[in-house]
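Chapter summary example.
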Amino acid sequence: MSLEEQVQQLLDKQAIAEVLQRYSRTLDWLDDEGQAGCFWPDAHIDYGFFTGRADDFVPVVMAIERSSQRRWHFLSAPAIAFTAPDQAQVECYGMATGIREAEDGSWSGGLYGGRYLDAFAKRDGEWRIASRKYIMDWKTPLDDQPGNEPNPDFPLPVLQIIASGHPDYRVM
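The structure predicted for these 172 residues follows.
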């Protein structure tokens, strides 16, 4: 591979990694448009509970995210294998949580671990997810979570995102 091809491959790997980071951020901050921009509209999506096109999936997943008052997604560094200059197979591990307030005022949720098996495609110079299969490997409950008020003994702010357009969100 020439130096120019090696540099292009590094740039492409970085662009793919940034799509994955944007995927997590836009879920957590309830950015529908940003979430849609991670996928090609015709991408095939298989999450088990949903199988179909990305343009149909994004409203479904965003409704699920809106059902939590707090959410957090974290993805590992991706493994990336190029199958062509404009196609790549990508795999990464992920952890996610969703926390909700119950009617009795208690806060709880779950922590989920799994992996994303993706195919990426570069169209008109832009990388996006062209197909995705999600596999959940494990789940554990998160009971007795903090509410919206900071702990007076260790008063860190508590972030609650219940709608799009949070004032702390920055489009990146």
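To summarize the output: The first strand starts at residue 39 and ends at 46.
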